[in-house]
Amino acid sequence: MHQWPETVTRVFQPGSNLKPMSKLSQQFSDLFTYLLIPGLAVLLPVSFSRSILYRASCWKWFMAEAAEAAFQGVKPYVEIEDEARFKRRWKQIELLDVRDLYLMSFGRTGAVLEDVEIETDLEVARDRVIIGMHWGPSISILKILQSAGLDPALPFRPPERHVLRIRPFYYLFSTLAARYMVKTMGDRAIPVGGAGKVLRGMLDQPGSVIVVMDAPPMQGRPTLSTAVIGKNAIFNAGFPDILADKEKEYVFYALSLQVGDTVRKKLELEGPFSSSEAQAFLQNYAEFLSRHLLADPAQWRIWHAAQQFWRDA
Asked: What is the pTM of this model?
């Protein structure tokens, strides 16, 4: 889910510098993406949403700017044989994440969770750090963990007011997402800004802490680097240092859209691991991230920020 951590609203806000016609196109795309299509999904049987999402992803004008930004972002790093397929799948994942949020927010959580295949016992994640990435239609991970009694915690960025003026329908979605997270996690929903200190304390308490590691670091913050898909990538050093200092066990997760005309998802868990060195942890994470980026690059949600991630590539 691209809204949880601090990345997307900071690094990419399409629509702020567009020409009038392009701005109008952006508003139409946002209207369909963040209001009309998920609104229909709430009212109709779940089986109908599969067809709606697939058909909408095939409209060339729909989400055109965001899909093009993702495609331009991926080209220098991963070879894409079929541009249209990449963009279609990228749109499907975005639409499915928004649809899932609406369903869970309006009392249909069961319809979302029954479409998630989980092969690994979730107990592997109990009282451990769960390390993820901006990957797939993953907003339901909070409900999955909560339903298993794992008491999830997560840093998130509340919606920024200036987005309301630029992209009101996206702002509506962001507000709904923030409310969902606070309702699901209570005081374990951690607004960014001093989140590191809060997370450090939470690592000594029961409960599972979710951290998304692939956000491009902000200028001026300490960083670490390691190879991701063969190119040097830059990471925020804060959490790897905390994790190494605590020697806390961690598990990697990825919630992925399965192949085909489907809304079914698969939750992958790897671990547990532990490391007393931040660089060793980061290399382990980079291998996990690299495998997924090469296997199904359309599922990475932040290709538009690739040049900030592979900053010196």
From this structure: 0.88
Give the residue-averaged pLDDT of 166-184: 91
Mean pLDDT of 153-158: 81
pLDDT greater than 60 at residue 18: no
In a domain, 3, yes or no: no
Domains in the chain: how many in total? 1
Closest by CA to 135, choosing from 215, 232, 251, is 215
Asked if residue 270 belongs to a domain, the reply is: yes
Is residue 1 domain-resident? no
Type of residue found at 89:
R
Q: Are 70 and 304 in contact (CB under 8 A)?
A: yes
pLDDT tens profile 109-131:
999 999 999 989 999 999 999 99
Q: What are the E-state strand segments in the chain? A: 116-118, 129-132, 152-156, 189-191, 208-212, 223-228, 231-236, 250-257, 265-273
Q: Parallel, antiparallel, or unpaired: how do β-strands 152-156 and 208-212 relate?
A: parallel
Dig out the tokens for 309 from the structure: 């991630």
Contacts of 49 (CB under 8 A, 6+ apart): 40, 41, 99, 263
- In 301-313, which positions are buried (b, 16+ CB within 10 angstroms) versus exposed (e)? bbbbbbebbbeeb
- For residues 202-229, b (16+ Cβ closer than 10 Å) or e, as one string? bbeeebbbbbbbbbbbeeeeebbbbebb
How confident is the model at residue 312, as a pLDDT? Answer: 59
The CA angle 31-36-41, to the nearest 5 degrees, is 145
User: Residue 252: which pLDDT band, with cuts at 50, 70 and 90?
Assistant: very high
Residue 2 inside a domain? The answer is: no
Domain that holds residue 304: 8-309
What tokens appear for 219 in the block? 């200028």
